## 1
Amino acid sequence: MELELGIAVDAGPDAGPLAQRAEAAGLDLVVVREGAARLDPWTTAAWVAGSTGRIPVGVSHGPAGPAGYPAVVAKARQSLDVLSGPRLIDAEPGWVVAPAGAHVAELRDLARTGLPVVVPVTAVEDVDRVAALAGDRSGGPRRSAAARSRRRDGIDYDGVPETLRDTAVEPGDRGYRAVSSNYLRGGAPGLVLRPRTPEQVADAVAFARHHPHVPLGVRSGGHGISGRSTNDGGLVIDVGAMSSIEVLDVDRRLVRIGPGATWKQVAAALDPYGWALGSGDYGGVGVGGLATAGGIGYLSRAHGLTVDHLRAVELVLADGSLVRAAAHERPDLFWAVRGAGANFGIATAFEFEVDEVGDVGYAILALVTPDIEASLLRFGELATQAPRDTTVFLVTGRPRHGQSVIQLYAMVDSSDADVIVGRLTPFLELGDLAQQEVAVTRYAGVMARAHDVGPDGHQGTGEPVSRSAFAPRMTPELAHDLGELLRTGRVFFLQLRTMGGAIADVPSAETAFAHRSPDFQLTAMGTEHASLDPAFDRLAHHFDGLYLSFETDLRPERLADAFPPLVLSRLRDAKRRYDPDNLFRDNFTVDPLGGRPKESS
């Protein structure tokens, strides 16, 4: 067993120089403890961390534990962790204290606990003596005691497949903050695996199969509103590195796209060919999550959902097998993936037949109205009566001083400025125009408005609270009830995505995304489910189904809302065939045992 050795120092002015000496000597840990001067170990630890660059820093609370107000201690811990990097250990026992002057045999005996051993020191000479006992510190890379102290229970860190070890991220690693959270949800996964090939995805799935007791998230771009691509204490399989985009057949407009690509990148790659593939409304979203859920976007009324363009998909199933699904190859799986894909495996590549799309009109209009009900009702009429080349989304929020601000995001699949103006002008009836931006541009230009995530990753916090529904029609009663909902203050974001057109051309039985006839997809976001759910549930009689990508309510009836009975029955049949043990269960699971009578004992 390798001996991890460090020093214990009293809080005081000598702690910094002693820590610097220990770091220079290659020791593994500095523990700051309260000494005779009774100075604060937290303050001293911050100074020690600032005086050093690598060595982990432990804070000893003494037998009474951390003193002071819990919130203050938590803030001190968080602040020091951010400022020093993941070098902090404050969870005892994170080390074993040896007697001052201990010899190597004693140290090795104490090290049998698996924890670092620290020796109390008061002078530079003491540090040099400990360093001499440690011997040669050169060797391969290894995780520090600080990193290991943050490991979560229930995960076999030593069992991480060899193919994934170099890119795996643990809670104590420096890159952890960049991969722990997603766009809207703060996360604290116990391990993030980052495969780069389908074979490595299979290795990650095999590792997950040996951990059925911890949550499992799958991430492509990390932008999902539902937030299921992170968790607390579980595993995340992040396929963001699998982001290749390849044209397979120019004549057929057939392209192959990795799940980790963003729609911004896809649009940019297709644009030189005069092509586009409709996705959602934001270019920073990852391909994998959207392409297995539906894809209601700016081009949907003109060209259909994203899943309607899918011609084949390659997946790693729960048993680790690499398979391909298409219309004539595992057709049941191909049907299920187009709308409920999160339940059946991890997609490693998609083949899409894309559309010829030239210049488009894109507009953002801000209007103010004193009568949100009348504006919603009129929007419903205008948006559904518009030609299918025109798709308009509406966003509004809480009224202020009797006025509501409406934002319209519109795309017209035409390069003719007169046509674009003609399509958009009727929407000015919805209120007083406060701001406008209208341009003839490329679809890639619209997607390029999304910000790049960057090396720091997503920084979501807390839990997203979002409810979703399909509204068959915008009736006076629905407009009234939405106005009342907004006035409660429980919803700060309400979006209506206009459907119809090419979406409705596809038979509902063609894909697991079965809600083809509604006029609108509706999303309402609030701050807590206890407040939002009762208010939103009262509107249920207006709705017919929901879109899982924008839903965070985990009550079991939401699954029945998402999938009509016959669809849910087919999905359960497919689940029993492809994931009978329900490995992929953390994103609105289709229980393979649901609907099947239990065997008598």
## 2
Amino acid sequence: MQRCILGGVAILAAGATTVQAQDVPVELPPLILGTALRADRDIRDTPVAASVVSGETLERRQADTIEELIGDVPGVSIEGGPRSVAQEINIRGFQDEQVVLRFDGGRFNFNRAHSGRFFFDPDIVQKVEVVRGGGSTLFGSGAIGGVVAVETKDVEDLLLPGQTTGARLRFGYSDNGQVWSPSATVYGDYGSFDALAFIGGREFGTSLEDGNGDEILRSEVDSLNGLIKLGFEPTEDQRFELNLSYYEDDGLVPPNANTEADPDPRTGNDSERSAEIFTYRMSWDWNPEGSDLVDLSVLLYGNTLEIQDDRIRDGRADFTEYDTIGFEVTNRSRFDVGVPVDLVYGVEAFRDEQSGTRNGAARVQFPDAEATTLGVFAEATFGVTDRLDLIAGVRFDQYDRDVDDPTLEDADDDFLSPRIGFSFRPNDDWQIFGNIARAFRAPTLTELYNDGVHFSYGFRNGVEFTNNFLPNPDLEAEESTQVELGARFDRANMFRPGDSLRLSANAYYADVENFIDAIVFEPGQGPRVPGSPTVLATSTQRNIDAELYGFEAELDYDAGNWFGGLALTLPEGEAKNGEELGSIPQARLTATLGYRPTSEWTVGARATFAGDQNDVPETGRPGEAFTVVDLFGSWAPERGPLQNAVFRAGIDNVFDEQYVIYPNELPQAGRSIKLSASFQF
């Protein structure tokens, strides 16, 4: 793996000195990060490991899932397999609920075993920010692994030069699964008022096929997403915004959507799934002209999720509801105390409520419960010199977990999350950064109280034998001390006038107390359920101490008529008792190379090299190495009747590789030919 990485760097560097640039090169836009410090800043001034993926880079992927959208970002792995409804985030070995997900500014906290929490159409996404490492100082519980912030398109992202109103139509198709993906967006800027409306969907014709040509049964999940954004600016220094999103999906899937389906009508657990998710965001931003003390952001947000699962073989009806409401106030101030200080501070409060029924009665697998979190935070950046910033911050959180079950205990605690760091710019091109932070995560409602059947071992003489969840209301909150050191380089005119080179690299170490680890016992192992002879084994959550460490790097070079990039992930981790963790992703290198023969045309290839993952728990399945190659191309006419249209073609998994992303069980999709056309007017 290391030889491949070094070879890729050498090839890219050599290409920079042998390929001629265009007379009018394409310049990379500045990378602005709004998540890391709750304020928009150049990524070169932030003391954290982060990646920003936006604009053309996202469009080029013609993504149908979140894995296709950001699955190659350093430090990131998308688990759950090819079904979009099962995909979950993993950063450095911290999984799903160990990572804060923010959608248009508001949290999305939903968690249910083997269910994803990405409920949006990829076509409306404008930017994804990924902050790796403990972020509890600003974002509290759940940011022990990092933060993923998804931002949808705004009016200003779509208006063509000289326009005040416009529309965009897109038509997409993938032959693997016969997936149609149309969308339509209308938008306008009327001075102090702007508006955008979007509707898009994905409709399957058949099941996906893996690299062996076998059907991935029950992978046809259709979806529909609508979004409305309204903005009002009564003065130049104020903006109000209302964001309403509706998402639905439906399809026939197994209850554990990241495993193989069982179509047998006598034994299968496959269910007719229908989900509806509604989100709202109401914000107010106020930045008075000439004021260094007030740059205020107020956000009220909410999510309502409902999932209906009706099992085919017996009609068993499961209903899941999960609601979140949150409120946060953030202000940014600048002042001088002998050195310039940038201070970001605020308060945050959110409540999650969940309930579940089975055939109208309470469902032990998803008991009625609620969680409340209150936090207050502050972080200051001290400009010690023109080249050196010191960063110090702290957050205090208090949380309560209440369950509507007299046999289970409530949980409550509080936690202090400090961070100190530095950012040093030895010259205009380089940044060296580092930080040490304490981060925590309170157990989720599902981790504390999940009960009932996890999965079936099958039937014997008409009797079903199962593996059952055991609730663990005594779970402690995860606490970690994380250390990170990294560097960034950014220079224009690197090898010739007009080109640009960006690279970053960082190493990290996380010492985690009470790491919450899911463990699935085999029959004959672990605790049993008394008086239940048909329950052969159990699954539960436990606290263990662990350490996670690794190295990440990314490089992007653009010479105008060609471009290339590398993204590297080398994660490691284990429990301190000598056991292996089941969440550490495979080592991975992604290499991209593209060519622009003219300003209208782009063609390129992307190769992903993943290493073996053999350090797995005793009951785990090792991850096998794989190599996947994708091709992409686009044509954007600059004149004539097709001006402002973009035609794209791509082939994902060109060589039909049969591969599984660890720790998934299902293989990913095989060769997929993708076509799309978008029109703006």
